[in-house]
């Protein structure tokens, strides 16, 4: 039987290097609460990502929840149904009503032309997701937010290292939130971060991730425990050395898929964005059943049977989850593009360990319809 090809595999630090860091941690006996590895990783990520203020978190979800809190959001937040469920759950946890608008067909990001009509006096923010690392239309979103005096958060879980016109995408909006989950281009097993624009915002975020503690006797705000521990920070510091090479391998896979599938009827993919430096985190393709001669789900099952474990990110839509399906904005007629994309998408394997033969195997399978 063919070897299993997963959609992704974690970028692991070489074990010997990690053992060296573990020995240091054992010596220091500091495993949590901002030891040297935590601080070094924050600094290294700021440099690597070309951002001024980055605060590490224990995962992306707690970071998103803290970002909502830091901006004092309430009422309604306008967002996309085409994402991982955490993007919306964090609003619900804050007692905020998600208001869903459709995505634009080229990049699957929130459609800025749908945002303004969804704004009410209760709207406090727009939450865009740079899905698959594709940049939201940050210029239009910024203009709308300024006009209506509302905040902007970007769920940048997929946007590690993505740049737009030579600048980090992570500095768009009021706050950007990253995930360093094992499935991401850069990972710390579980982890995340908030990128903020200035020292004052960063200070508030740092309070929020540490119970609001100022010092031994003072608690200045109602924070949570969002801190990253030393073991994962040490793991991340090593991974960071290898991430550029992992992104190059991903790029090779993406280029091979693009050129081999370009002429295949019924298969389309997302075009590269002008001025955007990608991280090649995902390679989604979209299956038009009539033209391809097979439904997305039949193809998905056939690929699984031959040990090619693709994933249908992002299906089902968040608005099809019982928690959200009764929201007035969740109606399928309100979200035709998102519904279509969710019914057609398959993400192909893309990661740093794929060989040329692996990539060829995926291409052959897609071309022969399973
Ligand atoms: C778009 C998106 N948002 C949020 C999250 C949540 O991040 P975490 O798993 O680090 O909590 C993820 C993935 O894990 C994600 O893909």
What are the salient characteristics of this protein?
single chain; 370 residues; alpha/beta; Aspartate Aminotransferase, domain 2; Aspartate Aminotransferase, domain 1; 2 domains; 7-stranded mixed β-sheet; 3-stranded antiparallel β-sheet; 12 helices; globular; binds pyridoxal-5'-phosphate
Mean pLDDT: 97
Named CATH architecture of the largest domain: 3-Layer(aba) Sandwich
- The side-by-side strand order for the widest beta sheet comes to 2-10-9-6-5-3-4
Report how far apart the termini are: 15 Å
In short:
With 370 residues, the chain is α/β, with parallel strands linked by helices. 38% of the residues lie in helices and 15% in strands. The protein has two domains: 15-238, Aspartate Aminotransferase, domain 2; 243-367, Aspartate Aminotransferase, domain 1.
